[in-house]
């Protein structure tokens, strides 16, 4: 009776694959959704299923997938063992490989490569981008091949783990490795399209990139050193601020916890334009601070803020909330019993904090630093707005792509430098953490009270975190005032006209009319962000679990691949998606799906890092106890592990949703008239000088995203660790 149950997953995959062959359209039809094409699946034509495409429309290579499913059926009829694994690996692996090769080799005009045309002659039959039928069949074949690996002894024989590693690895390869590699390969081709290492060297090893003018007494360093300095300062600053705010939110007075959690997340739910404008209104040449200094002390107004000070301040605003979300979950996870044990051994609170609490924060600190560093080197919005003459790699890449020169080779070469920086910091982080154990959440009861912060630490937290929160509120008050006045700088008459222009409602002949100019972009953005957020969080936490709880060959490369999209500037990622997905086998350009995928893989690293930091605190015995009680790996993940990952889940959901709502660079080349996003609408208004409508839209976005964050917190809930309430801080 055991064999049929153990093979049930394989039979399910085979059945899904066969259904997809016969009941779903194999190819994607432009301007037609797959459910609209369903009526034509049994007729010859573009909407036909895989069987008709192969048998009657001259595409016999599609039989490869069906043959693979048949081989897997033979394997599923056998008892579990190595022989069964060989059948599944042969059927699933060869079937998926054949479909992938044929998809890459045969495009919309026949052979995709001139060499194949020369070798085999002109191909009379073509094929379009793969559709829902082909995607489902290919996915099932990959899963069956992964099951075969598990039966052969890989991944400890666990079917779920094997399918998760192979599936996630393939997804990372398809939607990060393939497009980014295609874009970065341009660095090794000269202007005539010939492969050339010399061209790469000529673009990378230049005075502008690696110059040491500032060290030698000049005015500036190369953009690589500028980028590295800014990234190190930003990563250190965001980690420091995020940790202090997290300590105050979790270990400080209760009256501060609610406001802190709201205000600390304000910058992350704001389009980049708002923070930049608010800082300029405060510190720009005509800003409030410069005018006050000139009026009160006679100090002439200058552009001192533009450059490194301005970019650093803007990036601290933008990326501190990410560090806060990561660190909050880590602070919550520290077991009070460990601190109580130190106090019972007569250690004072400062010594306990320094020798027990702080070391247990190391996974969160390392992950927050890594994310802050990578966010900084990839950011181009803040350097463009307040960078002045301080050039960084991301801005040089942006102007190389969108400028009149359109030098894709130079942009790719600069992106290689960014990737190298990210790889170095990633290696340092792994080296520092190594195989140290940071487990604080085990299966044992722990109803202890978290130790109040030592007096000195509490005062430091209050002296740094509270002014920063106050500064945040001031910046936003200045920024959003523009949405409620007639014309900022000239006419400060209060008005709601900007909101009416963007979001007016009218009653027409057939009922309510969404008359405002911003409604279409708002609904599209909410739809695409709502789709991408749960997918991003689920994939990120699954990858974090694979990295933290499993060991397999290539694990380091697997982890870095999940971070690679962060290290690439958004503009380069957007261009890489156009280059990779504008032709078969995946024709996605111009669709909402390509935007959802870009959102997912651009925001994936935060879920991975937050999940990794959380897993470092969970005792493996929790997983092992569930498995010993005969729960499956999937059941253990769902019912044991996931409830203990609620802070990481909230961080991944919130970050992926709000970043999808506010991102600019990664999707600026992917939007179309049918899929206009909120940020592109705002940029268009700013370009036309209509700042009032732009800021009014930003105000509405912040309100909506605040409600969405509250809803996410309500639905996910708080992690319950069986602990009593936090004690109020008292003097040491």
TrEMBL record:
<feature type="transmembrane region" description="Helical">
    <location>
        <begin position="228"/>
        <end position="250"/>
    </location>
</feature>
<feature type="transmembrane region" description="Helical">
    <location>
        <begin position="262"/>
        <end position="284"/>
    </location>
</feature>
<feature type="transmembrane region" description="Helical">
    <location>
        <begin position="592"/>
        <end position="615"/>
    </location>
</feature>
<feature type="transmembrane region" description="Helical">
    <location>
        <begin position="304"/>
        <end position="327"/>
    </location>
</feature>
<keyword id="KW-1003">Cell membrane</keyword>
<protein>
    <submittedName>
        <fullName>Iron(III) transport system permease protein</fullName>
    </submittedName>
</protein>
<feature type="transmembrane region" description="Helical">
    <location>
        <begin position="159"/>
        <end position="180"/>
    </location>
</feature>
<dbReference type="GO" id="GO:0005886">
    <property type="term" value="C:plasma membrane"/>
</dbReference>
<feature type="transmembrane region" description="Helical">
    <location>
        <begin position="501"/>
        <end position="522"/>
    </location>
</feature>
<dbReference type="InterPro" id="IPR000515">
    <property type="entry name" value="MetI-like"/>
</dbReference>
<keyword id="KW-0472">Membrane</keyword>
<feature type="transmembrane region" description="Helical">
    <location>
        <begin position="128"/>
        <end position="147"/>
    </location>
</feature>
<feature type="transmembrane region" description="Helical">
    <location>
        <begin position="414"/>
        <end position="433"/>
    </location>
</feature>
<dbReference type="Pfam" id="PF00528">
    <property type="entry name" value="BPD_transp_1"/>
</dbReference>
<comment type="similarity">
    <text>Belongs to the binding-protein-dependent transport system permease family.</text>
</comment>
<dbReference type="InterPro" id="IPR035906">
    <property type="entry name" value="MetI-like_sf"/>
</dbReference>
<keyword id="KW-0813">Transport</keyword>
<feature type="transmembrane region" description="Helical">
    <location>
        <begin position="87"/>
        <end position="108"/>
    </location>
</feature>
<keyword id="KW-1133">Transmembrane helix</keyword>
<feature type="transmembrane region" description="Helical">
    <location>
        <begin position="560"/>
        <end position="580"/>
    </location>
</feature>
<feature type="transmembrane region" description="Helical">
    <location>
        <begin position="468"/>
        <end position="489"/>
    </location>
</feature>
<dbReference type="GO" id="GO:0055085">
    <property type="term" value="P:transmembrane transport"/>
</dbReference>
<feature type="domain" description="ABC transmembrane type-1">
    <location>
        <begin position="522"/>
        <end position="713"/>
    </location>
</feature>
<feature type="transmembrane region" description="Helical">
    <location>
        <begin position="9"/>
        <end position="29"/>
    </location>
</feature>
<feature type="transmembrane region" description="Helical">
    <location>
        <begin position="694"/>
        <end position="716"/>
    </location>
</feature>
<feature type="domain" description="ABC transmembrane type-1">
    <location>
        <begin position="224"/>
        <end position="429"/>
    </location>
</feature>
<feature type="transmembrane region" description="Helical">
    <location>
        <begin position="636"/>
        <end position="658"/>
    </location>
</feature>
<feature type="transmembrane region" description="Helical">
    <location>
        <begin position="528"/>
        <end position="548"/>
    </location>
</feature>
<keyword id="KW-0812">Transmembrane</keyword>
<feature type="transmembrane region" description="Helical">
    <location>
        <begin position="61"/>
        <end position="80"/>
    </location>
</feature>
């Amino acid at each position: 009776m055991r064999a049929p149950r153990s093979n049930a997953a394989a039979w399910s995959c085979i059945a899904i694959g066969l259904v997809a062959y016969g009941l779903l359209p194999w190819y994607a039809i432009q301007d037609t959704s797959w459910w609209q094409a369903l009526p034509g699946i049994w007729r010859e034509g573009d909407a036909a299923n895989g069987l008709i495409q192969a048998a009657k429309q001259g595409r016999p290579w599609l039989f490869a997938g069906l043959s693979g499913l048949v081989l897997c059926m033979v394997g599923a009829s056998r008892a579990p063992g190595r022989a069964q694994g060989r059948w599944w690996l042969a059927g699933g692996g060869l079937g998926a490989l054949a479909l992938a090769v044929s998809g890459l080799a045969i495009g919309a005009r026949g052979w995709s490569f001139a060499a194949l045309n020369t070798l085999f002659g002109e191909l009379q039959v073509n094929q379009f981008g793969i559709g829902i039928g082909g995607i489902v069949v290919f996915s099932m074949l990959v899963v069956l091949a992964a099951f075969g690996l598990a039966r052969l002894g890989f991944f400890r024989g666990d079917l779920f783990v094997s399918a998760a590693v192979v599936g996630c690895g393939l997804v990372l390869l398809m939607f990060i490795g393939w497009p980014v590699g295609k874009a970065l390969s341009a660095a090794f081709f000269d202007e005539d399209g010939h492969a050339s290492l010399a061209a790469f060297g000529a673009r990378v090893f230049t005075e502008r990139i690696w110059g040491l003018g500032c060290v030698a007494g000049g005015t500036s360093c190369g953009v690589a050193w500028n980028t590295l300095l800014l990234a190190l300062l930003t990563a250190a600053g965001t980690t420091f601020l995020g940790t202090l705010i997290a300590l105050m939110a979790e270990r400080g007075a209760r009256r501060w916890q609610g406001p802190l959690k709201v205000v600390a997340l304000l910058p992350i739910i704001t389009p980049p334009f708002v923070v930049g404008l608010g800082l300029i209104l405060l510190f720009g040449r005509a800003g409030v601070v410069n005018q006050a200094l000139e009026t009160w002390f006679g100090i002439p107004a200058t552009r001192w803020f533009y450059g490194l000070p301005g970019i650093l301040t803007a990036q601290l605003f933008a990326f501190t909330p990410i560090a806060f979300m990561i660190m909050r979950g880590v602070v919550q996870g520290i077991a009070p019993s460990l601190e109580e044990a130190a106090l019972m051994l007569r250690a004072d609170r400062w010594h306990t904090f320094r020798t027990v609490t702080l070391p247990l924060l190391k996974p969160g600190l390392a992950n927050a630093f890594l994310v802050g560093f990578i966010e900084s080197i990839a950011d181009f919005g803040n350097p463009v707005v307040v960078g002045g003459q301080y050039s960084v790699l991301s801005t040089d890449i942006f102007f190389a792509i969108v400028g009149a020169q359109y030098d894709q080779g130079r942009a790719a070469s600069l992106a290689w430098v960014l990737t190298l920086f990210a790889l170095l910091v990633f290696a340092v982080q792994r080296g520092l953490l190594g195989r140290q154990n940071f487990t604080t959440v085990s299966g044992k009861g722990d109803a202890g009270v978290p130790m109040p912060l030592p007096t000195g630490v509490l005062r430091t937290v209050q002296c740094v975190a509270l002014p920063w929160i106050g500064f945040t509120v001031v910046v936003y008050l200045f920024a959003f005032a523009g949405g409620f006045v007639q014309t900022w700088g000239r006419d400060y008459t209060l008005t709601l006209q900007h909101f009416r222009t963007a979001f007016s409602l009218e009653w027409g002949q057939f009922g309510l009319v969404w008359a405002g100019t911003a409604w279409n972009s708002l609904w599209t953005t909410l739809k695409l962000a709502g789709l991408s957020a749960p997918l991003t969080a689920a994939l990120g936490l699954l990858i974090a679990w694979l990295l933290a709880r499993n060991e397999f060959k290539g694990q380091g490369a697997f982890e870095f691949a999940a971070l690679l999209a962060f290290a690439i500037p958004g503009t380069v990622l957007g261009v890489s998606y156009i280059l990779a997905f504008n032709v078969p086998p995946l024709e996605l350009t111009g669709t909402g799906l390509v935007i959802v995928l870009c959102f997912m893989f651009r925001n994936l690293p935060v879920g991975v890092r937050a999940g990794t930091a959380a897993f470092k605190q969970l005792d493996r015995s929790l997983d092992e106890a569930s498995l010993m009680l005969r729960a499956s790996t999937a059941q253990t993940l769902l019912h044991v592990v996931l409830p203990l990952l609620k802070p990481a889940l909230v961080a991944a959901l919130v970050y992926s949703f709000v970043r999808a709502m506010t991102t600019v660079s990664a999707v600026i080349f992917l939007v179309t008239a049918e899929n206009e996003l909120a940020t592109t609408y705002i940029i268009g208004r700013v370009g036309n000088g209509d700042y009032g409508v732009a800021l009014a839209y930003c105000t509405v976005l912040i309100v909506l995203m605040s409600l969405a964050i509250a809803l996410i917190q309500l639905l996910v809930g708080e992690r319950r660790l069986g602990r009593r309430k936090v004690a109020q801080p008292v003097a040491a």
